[in-house]
Amino acid sequence: MPLARITPDLEMHYRDDGFADSWTKPEAMLLLHGNAESSEAWNAWLPILGRRFRVVRPDMRGFGQSTPMPLDYRWSVDRIIDDFIALADALGLQSFHIGAAKVACPIALRLAARHPDRVRSLVVLGGIVSGEISVGPRAASWLEHIEQKGVESWARWTMPGRLGSQCSAEMMEGWSKLMGKTPLSTQLGFIRSVPAIDVRPDLPNIKCPTLVVTTDGSGLGSVESVRAWQTAIPNSEFMVVPGDSYHVAATHPKLCAKAMVGFIDRRATE
Q1: What does the pLDDT read at residue 268?
Q2: Which of 107, 129, 95, 90 is nearest to 230 (CA)?
Q3: What pLDDT score does 134 carry?
Q4: Plot region of 164 (φ>0 → left; ψ -120 to 50 → alpha; else → beta)
Q5: CA distance readout (Å), 169 to 31, 38, 84, 142, 163
Q6: Which residues contact 72 (CB under 8 A, 6 or more apart)?
Q7: Which residue ranges make up each domain of the chain?
Q8: What is the largest CA-CA distance in the chain?
Q9: What is the reported pTM?
Q10: 37-41, 111-115, 187-191, 218-222: least confident range
Q11: Does 3.90.550.10 match the CATH number of domain 3-134+196-267?
């Protein structure tokens, strides 16, 4: 099990995959998962990305098989960014592409703004830029549900909005169980921190080619509201996928993975 000691309180689990021919030198890509998920969330992307890239999928601090965080842990977007940079340094990744889903999107956006020399391209899928606007009104009811019934029950309760009306019952149950593995202390502490996330000031400072992907019926924000912050990112493009899920990386993995590869082919050599 690949583990990296990032800080005294964090041993980070990660997956490092690639299926390129031995005589090639694939570029590196970081795939950053959303809240209450793990590196497993990107499994459906690997058949498309693995032949082309060295794909590194970390379990974010507190999640997956990384060290759980205590209930009173003081969450920080910048600390999470430092974790990912430390992992990239440990693996010898001088530069990399990034794909990010849901709440990993604001983390990735600030990472790109802070480290323009490291990030070659960025694709954010079903993302937010202000936790207060997108999640704030729901945070109290989410916390109450988790405290009373646990993480898996909360995941199952909120799954229809996450995966949309066209998702199968089997997929909803599978994702509920995946998310339900999140330690209770991590999830409660992290959700309490989400409303304070605001990366809107970082957007004009992003230098790499950026693709913002959303659905036309996302419960995290209308197409117009997402386009409003997307246009603040220089050199960015916008992609709208038909559907009412807000976790577009999960519900449309093949479509989005192919779009990412096409975007990199067109834009990442600039």
Answers
A1: 76
A2: 129
A3: 87
A4: left
A5: 26, 21, 34, 22, 10
A6: 189
A7: 3-134+196-267
A8: 54
A9: 0.96
A10: 218-222
A11: no
